[in-house]
Design a protein that fits this description.
There is one protein chain. The chain has two domains: 96 residues, Rossmann fold (3-Layer(aba) Sandwich); 66 residues, no CATH class. It has six helices and seven strands; from the N terminus they run βαβαββαβββααα. With 179 residues, the protein is α/β, with parallel strands linked by helices. The chain is elongated. It has a five-stranded parallel β-sheet, with helices on both faces. It has a two-stranded antiparallel ribbon with strand order 6-7. It is 40% helix and 17% strand.
């Protein structure tokens, strides 16, 4: 696995499935400002508000046309396998919820503090372990990190170095990681 953060703003991302797993994936895509397309005969109520385009029908070959990313998140092994086949044939990166080995990427558990993101992955081996590690890190990386990162971004944008006060604050916050 190669870790990467992708800019999905305005990109068509297709989620096949209408249950809780599909809902979580679609909401994360929405946070990334992706153009979320959901295809499923049945859709959880909250998922309707996330999709830019909603097709209340079963998946059909060709549904991934124009997709930047695809997610197979149904409770049907056959449908997930069909989504993976189409995505792989069209060179569209695909995440397959029930059989990660059929997909081309895994979705990490992500801790967000403003612009800062810390991603934890087990390469699909144990999403619950990745989530537990992320939960532990939430206590270490408090809300103050959002402000620190924003100040660092402003300094960088202005071509300046971080001032001593900011450097000391970063060192102080990092020292808590060491215990």
């Amino acid at each position: 696995m190669y870790p990467v953060f992708m800019d999905l703003e305005g990109r068509r991302c297709v989620v096949v499935g209408g249950g809780e797993v599909a809902n979580r994936k679609a909401r994360k895509l929405l946070q990334a400002r992706a153009e979320v397309v959901v295809i499923s005969p049945e859709v959880r109520p909250g998922l309707e508000s996330v999709a830019v385009e909603l097709s209340r029908r079963p998946y059909e070959d060709g549904d991934l046309e124009g997709a930047y990313l695809a997610f197979a998140a149904t409770d049907s092994r056959e449908v997930n396998a069909a989504v993976a086949r189409e995505a792989n044939a069209k060179n569209i990166p695909v995440n397959v919820a029930d059989r990660p080995s059929e997909g081309s990427f895994a979705v990490p558990s992500v801790l967000r503090r403003g612009r800062m993101q810390v991603a934890v992955s087990t390469g699909g081996a144990s999403p619950s372990l990745a989530r537990s590690i992320k939960d532990e890190l939430e206590g270490v990386f408090g809300a103050e990190w959002a402000g620190l990162v924003e100040e660092l971004a402003i300094a960088r944008r202005n071509g300046e170095k971080a001032d001593e006060r900011l450097e000391r604050e970063v060192v102080r916050c990092l020292s808590r990681l060491r215990g």
